[in-house]
Amino acid sequence: MRLTVLGGGGFRMPLVYRALLDDTGDAAGRCTELVLYDTDQRRLDAIRAVLAEQATGRPTAPAVRATTDLDQALRGADFVFSAIRVGGLEGRANDERIPLGEGVLGQETVGAGGVLYGLRTLPVALRIAERIATVAPDAWVINFTNPAGMVTEAMQRVLGDRVIGICDSPVGLCRRAARAVGADPDRATYDYVGLNHLGWLRRVVVDGRDRLPELLGDTGALESFEEGKLFGAEWLRALGALPNEYLHYYYFNREAVASIRQAPATRGEFLRDQQARFYATAGSGAPGALREWERTRLEREATYMAESREATGGWERDSCDLDGGGYDRIALAIMRAIARDERATLILNVRNRTAVPGLDEDAVVEVPCVVDAGGARPLATGAVAPDQLGLMLSIKAVERSAIEAATTEAGSDSGIARGAALRALALHPLVDSVKVAGRILDASGALTRS
After folding, report:
1. Cα–Cα distance between 164 and 376 in angstroms, integer?
2. CA geometry: angle 399, 117, 430, nearest 5 deg
3. pTM for this model (two decimals)
4. 10 Å Cβ neighbour count for 320?
5. Would strands 242-243 and 209-210 be described as parallel, antiparallel, or unpaired?
6. How many CB atoms lie within 10 A of CB 28?
7. Angstrom distances, CA of residue 118 to CA of 27, 85, 129
8. Which residues are CB-neighbours of 127 under 8 A, at least 6 positions away?
9. What does DSSP assign to residue 160?
10. Is 90 in contact with 272 (CB distance < 8 Å)?
11. Is residue 147 reached through a cis peptide bond, with omega within 30 degrees of 0 on the bond before it?
């Protein structure tokens, strides 16, 4: 089986390869060839050095091939894992810093920063989808490119349900909640509903019993894990659900913005500088690329969402959350389920159909899905609380305005594209003025650099 990774020179690529190395399942459904595609040869060289060290002593390790030719990378692929970052970390740093200059949230996927990232990424993602449709029409696409929900919905307009979006935030939340009630995370089932980076865990069912009310009633247990520390027991009990960590930027927006503005660097700026050092070292040809990657990875994981933790009193991440795995294991689980027809239930970004009442059938949602050889099918969620549905509808309107801007720009109608892009920014609940939205859009150059 051939897996092609778009953005194969990305820093987290060794996590995917680690998951492939640990796959001891049926040889017929195992990845035997890994193709890395990237536009940056230097990054490819550095990551290949790390992967070569990972494969040492592993005779069944997938063969690795790297290329900067997209069609060559796609041809013959059974699965395509999309993890591109258009504009690199310099682009992310600008997406975050420009809104902060206007006093609103600057974050990779949430608020104005997320809209700017989407405006820059969507045209490229759509061109990639068109190449997949031509060169590898039978391939399944697993999308991790952020903003994942927005990008998945755009790519589905070209490739249909063969595009499945993934994120590691929901599974992390679910597993932490299960551990907090003393349950085995693998034995529990989870009722989760939302959009990417905008969801809520509503039930944790163990042996037929929902343990979430018990958890909400125990302040010590509730505040023993990340989301409990971020949101506080009082607010979680008021909600009656456990929010995805990214909802901290909505519920505690003022505190989050203040913390980010006081930090010496945004997350994007920190990662830009950190990874520049890693790629310079790992790409030098000297031994120890894997050791340098692991050191950099641990530093990266330890500082994840540092500004939100600082805004809630300052606390360190638990050791079990520093493993760095998550989305890589989800991707592998999808590939296993489809290639081997091994039925699995996973929280994924898929077309709604009728799963979430109040959203149309083509809206990409993040919900539990059954996955097998036929792909991923969402499970019905039942009624959604009005506050949750209202926020989902608002963000879906933002996502679709961004998609409209990207697709209109491709048709060279810059006036309509600008209107849609302005609407995407100004309609976001975390952007407090149309004039602010216009200044952010102009400063970003988002409609001229894709």
Report:
1. 7
2. 60
3. 0.93
4. 11
5. unpaired
6. 8
7. 38, 10, 15
8. none
9. G
10. yes
11. yes
The set of long-range contacts for 250-257, using a CB threshold of 8 Å and a minimum separation of 24, is: 250/110, 250/198, 250/391, 250/429, 250/430, 252/308, 252/311, 252/312, 253/105, 253/430, 255/311, 255/312, 256/105, 256/307, 256/308, 256/311, 257/100, 257/103, 257/104, 257/105
Write down the H helix ranges in 57-165: 70-74, 88-101, 111-135, 148-159
139 SS3 class: coil
Q: What's the pLDDT at 322?
A: 44
Query: Would the pLDDT of 413 be above 80?
Result: no
Residue 268: which residues within 8 A CB-CB, separation 6 or more?
89, 92, 93, 94, 95, 96, 97, 108
Distance, CA of 159 to CA of 407 (rounded, Å): 15
Neighbours of 285 (CB within 10 A): 9
Taking residue 65's Cβ as centre, other Cβ atoms within 10 Å add up to 16
> Max alpha carbon distance in the chain (Å)?
60
Tell me how far apart the terminal alpha carbons of the chain are, to the nearest angstrom: 33
Task: Please state, as a whole number, how many other Cβ atoms lie within 10 Å of the Cβ of residue 101.
Answer: 12
Distance CA 45, CA 366 (A): 35
Q: Name the one residue in this structure whose structure tokens are 């907090």.
A: 180
Pairing of strands 198-206, 242-243: antiparallel
> What's the chain's average pLDDT?
92
Read off the tokens for 315: 């606390």
Separation of alpha carbons 197 and 144, rounded Å: 12
Cα distance between residue 11 and residue 46, in whole Å: 9
How far CA 17 is from CA of 62, 164, 332, in Å, comes to: 8, 20, 10
Q: What is the pLDDT of residues 262-311, one digit of tens each?
A: 999 999 999 999 999 999 988 877 789 999 999 999 988 887 766 665 66
CA distance 22 to 328: 11
pLDDT tens digits for 178-193? 999 999 999 999 999 9
Residue type, 217: G
Q: Which of 83-97, 118-132, 302-316 has the lowest mean pLDDT?
A: 302-316
112-116, 118-122, 194-198, 303-307, range with the lowest pLDDT: 303-307
DSSP 65: E
d(CA 138, CA 375): 12
Question: One-letter amino acid identity for 370?
Answer: V
* Residues whose CB is less than 8 angstroms from the CB of residue 249 and which lie 6 or more positions away in sequence, other chains included: 105, 107, 110, 111, 256, 308, 430
